[in-house]
Specification:
The protein has helices at residues 3-19, 38-41, 88-91, 94-106, 159-168, 188-196, 207-215, 240-264, and strands at residues 26-29, 43-49, 67-72, 78-82, 111-120, 130-138, 174-179, 201-203, 219-229. It has 265 residues and is an alpha/beta fold. It has one domain: 3-Layer(aba) Sandwich (Rossmann fold). Helix 5 links the parallel strand 6 and strand 7.
Length: 265
């Protein structure tokens, strides 16, 4: 067995022991602005600091949590909230970025919700907008896959789950997300390049996790919160506080939306 999957299985076993939940059903990665959703999804069964599980530490970017939470939703689903998202710019290792998703799959999760805070190339889809991912561009130049692992990415974001989200909020616009490596924000030229290639959202997460999830056969829903207009679109310089502020302001609304979606999964 590949060592990455061995570590994922080991971490899943540790998670089961720490939470008392043998198998989880749905995994959530809560990006900037999305953290409050966990409080609305269901009863907290257990909270586990990430440094108690193999392959993780306590380091988390501002706006992210350094813990895992096991929740029981009203429909009886066990929901695993994956804190301490490991970004590529932190690890420079796509396999480490994918570890949480692979652990979730080993823990029994068949569905994954990936959320993020991002920049928009469309002025009409500005800060505070929630966008439903229909596809992505992996512009990192790396992959969490190893060897001759040919994974179909045709429908990486589940049409079924996208339709479920639309039943809850039919105003959600579609979007194509481009993942850059970061941690620097994109230049004006890079944003124009991404837009020319078809992307209308830019950020530093999500695509590598989605690749790993599809390798394990998981059904994925992607949701982006626009926290700022991308470089060259709004005329202002970018900073992380702007991301945090936009997430805070939109938090209650987007948390309620995500909670309703998860309850329907």
């Amino acid at each position: 067995m590949d060592t990455a999957f061995e570590l994922a299985s080991e971490s899943a076993a540790q998670l089961a022991s720490a939470t008392g939940v043998e198998r989880h059903d749905i995994a959530l990665v809560l990006g900037s602005g999305w953290g409050g959703a966990a409080d609305l999804i269901g009863e907290v069964v257990a909270t586990v600091p990430t440094d108690q599980i193999s392959g993780f530490d306590t380091h988390a970017v501002a706006g992210h949590s350094a813990e895992f939470r096991s929740l029981l939703s009203p429909n009886g689903k066990h929901v695993l909230v994956l804190g301490a998202r490991q970004h590529y710019y932190q690890t420079l290792d796509a396999v480490r970025v994918a570890h949480a998703v692979r652990m979730a799959a080993a823990a029994g999760c068949t569905q994954l919700v990936l959320t993020n805070g991002c920049g928009s190339t469309r002025p009409e889809v500005g800060p505070g907008s929630v966008v439903l991912l229909e596809d992505h561009l992996n512009l990192t130049g790396v992959t969490p896959l190893r060897g001759a692992t040919f994974v179909d990415m045709t429908n990486v974001y589940s049409p079924r789950l996208r339709e479920l989200a639309r039943q809850i909020d039919d105003t959600l616009p579609d979007g194509i997300y481009a993942q850059f490596t970061g941690p620097q924000y994109e230049t004006r030229a890079e944003v124009r390049m991404a837009a020319t290639l078809g992307a209308n959202l830019v950020g530093m997460s999500t695509a590598l996790e989605a690749i790993a999830a599809r390798e394990r056969g998981m059904e994925i829903l992607g949701l982006s919160l626009v926290t700022n207009l991308a470089a060259g679109m709004g005329g202002e310089e970018l900073n992380h506080q702007e991301v945090l502020d936009a997430g805070r302001d939109a938090g209650p609304r987007i948390s309620a939306l995500l909670a309703e979606i998860v309850k329907g999964m």
